[in-house]
Amino acid sequence: MTKTQTKIFIVVAAAAAALAAALIAASQLGAHAGSAAPAPAALLGAGDTTSLLRGIPQHGTVLGDPKAPVTLVEYADLQCPYCAEWATTTLPVLVHDYVRAGRVKLVFRGLAFIGPDSGLALRSALAAASQGRLWQVVHLLYVNQGQENSGWVTDDLLRQVGASVPGLDGERMLNERRSSMVDSALDSAATAATNAGVTGTPTFEIGRTGGPLSHLQLASLDASAFRPAIDRLMQQ
Questions:
Q1: 75 is in which domain, residue-wise?
Q2: What pTM does this model have?
Q3: Is 168 domain-assigned?
Q4: Does residue 73 form part of some domain?
Q5: Which of 40, 54, 207 shows the shortest CA–CA distance to 139?
Q6: Residue 24: CB partners within 8 Å, gap ≥ 6?
Q7: pLDDT at 103
Q8: Nearest 5 degrees, angle CA 62-CA 68-CA 73?
Q9: Using one digit for the tens of pLDDT, what is the confidence trace for 71-106?
Q10: Which of 84, 102, 167, 234 fits as disulfide partner to 65, beta carbons 3.0 to 4.6 Å?
Q11: CATH of residue 65
């Protein structure tokens, strides 16, 4: 072998070795990427929920301006199909016409009448309250509501909820479900429901902010059924 042939052989061998090393590294990278847990997918209704509630202040279980002249309280079970109907059809109208304009603030008082899935969903939503995201979690659970007590409220679903709400730390939400803050919120809602004589969901109370609340008698769950009471209180 001549000197020229030897140099060519060394160059080719070095290039081949470099290529082999690159292929091995790429293969290892691909293996690590393939073994990583996939990020939870965004849930149905995630974009609409974000748009609906974007920019509206939240304080615990309260949605809207704390100084809004009218307070509307909702007693709800996250497995209740009628609550889901109200949340997906009427709530957006009330938010657009009253809450976003600073005229009404909404208060969520969650109950767990129906069964175990109700309690797990409710604890998760209340845990999100410390991050100012309760209403997003509640709305997404209604949009993706499963059959009652079928085991539909899973940690996987709740992680999807966490991934679907901008600004929400989903793992923190899951970890805080058994916190004293959540226990206190559950007790407070249960006491308020007992005092208000709530026997089913959804039930609503309404009144001037800071004043007494009255049971809201409704002919339907349509937005039009809420307007007379809200408009009357706004004029007081």
A1: 46-234
A2: 0.83
A3: yes
A4: yes
A5: 54
A6: none
A7: 98
A8: 45
A9: 999 999 999 999 999 999 999 999 999 999 999 999
A10: 102
A11: 3.40.30.10
